[in-house]
Amino acid sequence: MKVLPFTIPKPKRDALILQEDEQLSFYEFLHQHEEFQISLIEQGQGTLIVGDSVGFYNAGDVIVLAGKLPHVFKSNTTLGQKSHMLSVFFTKTSFGHGFFDTEELKSLISFFKKAENGFKVTSPGEKIINIFQKLQKVSKLDRFILFFKLLKHLNNAKHEVLSSFISEKGYTDNEGQRMSAVFQYSMTHFHEKISLDEIAREAAMTTNAFCKYFKKRTRKTYITFLNELRIEEACKFLREE
């Protein structure tokens, strides 16, 4: 199965795609898609990889990702609780070419710029959360209105940048499968000693070629990435204690 690109199911005539994920674990493979993604974590926690960064997510987080930005939500299943996420997907042409370039919407330029790196709203507040929870319950016209209210609030909200990595082209299928294999192996075995030779074999590359490849794609060495992953997991463990 091709891990990348990931296709968001979309009704033919709908400009906005609403998706609700409620299961033990979110889709836990590195993936990317054409659409912008705005997600509210209703329940659950875990590791969040976006571009070249390793972080975490918790219930109540609102996360915004641009199209073609590689990411993965790795759910913490040890708690035995379901993961629940509400998401809105759209593209800059969902409402027609040039729609977001109109004078009335120029204030949203900064929103799209921030989304290129991905961002997490640091204090979503009731307004943003209430809009999310209403989106699936209202008519499509009201959904359209609420969506732009959501963009307005997100554009003005305090936020944390998630990644310094911006990929205009995204990953090819082969690159996606290779990077997904590396990230999956790292997230499964981070508590063990992982040598560069070992992780290079997972990527089906020589050690030297892998080191150059990984740094070019993430702008950091694999050892730096692995240490960041271990630190985030340690912090998550301490928060749960």
Radius of gyration: 18 Å
Mean pLDDT: 86
**What name does CATH use for the topology of the largest domain?**
Jelly Rolls
Q: What is the terminal-to-terminal distance?
A: 38 Å
| Total DSSP E strands | 9
What string gives the helices and strands in order? EEEEEEEHEHHEHHHH
Low-confidence regions:
1-5
Tell me roughly what share of residues is in helical segments.
25-40%
Provide the spatial order of strands within the biggest beta sheet.
1-7-2-5-8-9
Supply the CATH class of the largest domain: Mainly Beta
Oligomer: single chain
Q: CATH homologous superfamily name of the largest domain?
A: Regulatory protein AraC
Structure commentary:
It is a single chain. The protein has 2 domains: 145 residues, Regulatory protein AraC (Jelly Rolls); 68 residues, Arc Repressor Mutant, subunit A (Orthogonal Bundle), CATH 1.10.10.60. Strand 3 and strand 4 form a beta hairpin. The longest helix has 19 residues. The protein has a 6-stranded antiparallel beta sheet, with helices on one face. A 3-stranded antiparallel beta sheet has the order 4-3-6, covered by helices on one side. Helix content is 37%, strand content 20%. It is built from 7 helices and 9 strands. It is globular, with a radius of gyration of 18 Å. The termini are far apart. Helix 2 packs antiparallel against helix 3. It is α+β, with helices and mostly antiparallel strands.
